[in-house]
Structure to design on (466 residues):
């Protein structure tokens, strides 16, 4: 079971609410969601169950399909309520089919370098889970990290090799306390991965978090299934307490156990963590994308397209995207969230949105915007189509630059190829479709008194949007 509800704001400006870090390739050519799902593929593993934000449902489905992950079940959260309600939904759904099935719960955005060691630790955790325990994975600390929770390791359990009791959980400590934990060698980082049977999870949620389980049960009873998704009942799910599984169950249960593991784990929760997890040059620098450095050391520099150069910097993070640039000391990496909060308060859309906006059919991105006009680039995946729609305040002109388009304009249907165009007057009913085998790319010029995305009246939609 994969939790994919996070927004990853500490990796701004790359990770934003509309397209968070689990959908980005951070440590390989695959996205973090694909990396995570691929760890649980093959003999002995059932198809994954993913819990995600409703707005990300098609991103999740498309990325799993691209990674050859078949038959995944995707549960849609009507609102983010932290991890306990999400886990409760998956556990209840699985318990109804097979209560003794073992669930491996993990976040969609963590990096793990040593897959064989992970699977060895998982084997021990599964054995303990079948004995009725809820097992977490404790990672051996390498630095006095203040951004992670810790687990104090208790005595070894009899009958299950390599598994210990949990003495206690410790939330993100001060710098001095984290240094003491590192020196004492009795504390491990809390990875946020858990292994337990569906029946055990449901029973402990019912015992320690009855309000969570009752709300989620009502939400599942009201769930709808469409286009392969399980859409949880909104009213009941929103009534569930917003609480993590750590607070709801793990800090209260007598069944908590931990498997110490050294698997090269990182939650990639900051740009400093990205620097730690990346290959470095002789000067300790990390460069990703079109980057040039002179007389710099210990820096993390990433560009998503624009040439980015630095001179004479030390221990600095520089991240460049199409619409934002972040520069800060690596030691201040945890404070990116303060900047994002300031941007939100100022109403800056860059806090939550990228220039490229993803839709079920593909994506679009703004190129130029003026007083009464806007230019966008639109890309439609093969076989996909936009909703049948109209606008009250704008007209549009479409120019095909790659691929083939079928355009419905009122009662007419037009086939357009490269270098051909069509005008859509204000108020006309229209639809765009890609009938071809390659992506369709076109330039859209909008003109009118109001150009907001909410000036769309959907008459018919393949994806169930209103």
């Amino acid at each position: 079971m994969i939790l994919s509800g996070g927004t990853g704001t500490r990796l701004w400006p790359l990770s934003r609410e509309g397209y968070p870090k689990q959908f980005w390739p951070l440590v390989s050519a695959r996205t973090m969601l694909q990396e995570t799902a691929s760890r649980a593929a093959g003999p002995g593993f059932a198809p994954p169950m993913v819990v995600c934000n409703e707005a990300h449902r098609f991103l999740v489905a498309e990325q799993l399909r691209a990674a050859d992950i078949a038959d995944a079940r995707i549960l849609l959260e009507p609102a983010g309520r932290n991890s306990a309600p999400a886990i409760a939904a998956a556990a209840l759904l699985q318990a109804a089919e097979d209560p003794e099935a073992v669930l491996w719960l993990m976040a969609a955005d963590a990096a793990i370098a040593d897959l064989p060691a992970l699977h060895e630790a998982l084997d021990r955790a599964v054995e303990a889970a079948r004995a009725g325990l809820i097992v977490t994975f404790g990672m051996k600390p390498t630095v006095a990290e203040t951004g992670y929770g810790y687990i104090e390791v208790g005595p070894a359990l009899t009958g299950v090799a390599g598994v210990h009791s949990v003495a206690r959980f410790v939330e993100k400590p001060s710098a001095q306390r984290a240094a003491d934990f590192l020196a004492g060698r009795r504390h491990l980082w809390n990875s946020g991965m858990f292994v337990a049977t569906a029946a055990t999870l449901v029973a402990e949620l019912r015992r320690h978090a009855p309000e969570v389980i009752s709300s989620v049960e009502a939400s599942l009873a009201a769930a709808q299934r469409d286009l392969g998704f399980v859409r949880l009942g909104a009213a009941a799910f929103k009534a569930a307490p917003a609480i993590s599984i750590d607070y709801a169950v793990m800090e209260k249960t007598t069944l908590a156990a931990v498997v110490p593991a050294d698997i090269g784990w990182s939650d990639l929760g900051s740009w400093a963590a990205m620097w730690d997890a990346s290959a470095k040059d002789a000067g300790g620098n990390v460069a990703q994308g079109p980057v040039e450095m002179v007389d710099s050391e210990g820096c993390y520099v990433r560009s998503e397209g624009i040439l980015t150069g630095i001179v004479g910097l030390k221990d600095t993070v520089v991240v460049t995207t199409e619409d934002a640039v972040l520069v800060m000391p690596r030691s201040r990496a945890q404070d990116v969230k303060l900047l994002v909060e300031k941007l939100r308060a100022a109403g800056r859309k860059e806090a939550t949105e990228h220039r490229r906006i993803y839709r079920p059919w593909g994506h679009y991105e703004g190129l130029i915007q003026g007083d009464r006009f806007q230019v966008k680039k639109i890309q439609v995946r093969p076989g996909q189509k936009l909703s049948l729609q109209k606008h009250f305040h704008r007209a549009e002109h479409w120019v095909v630059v790659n691929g083939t388009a079928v355009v419905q304009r009122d009662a007419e249907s037009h086939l357009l190829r490269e270098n051909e165009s069509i005008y859509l007057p204000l108020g006309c009913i229209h639809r765009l479709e890609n009938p071809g085998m390659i992506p369709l790319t076109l330039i859209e010029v909008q003109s009118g008194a109001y150009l907001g995305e909410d000036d769309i009246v959907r008459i018919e939609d393949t994806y169930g949007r209103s």
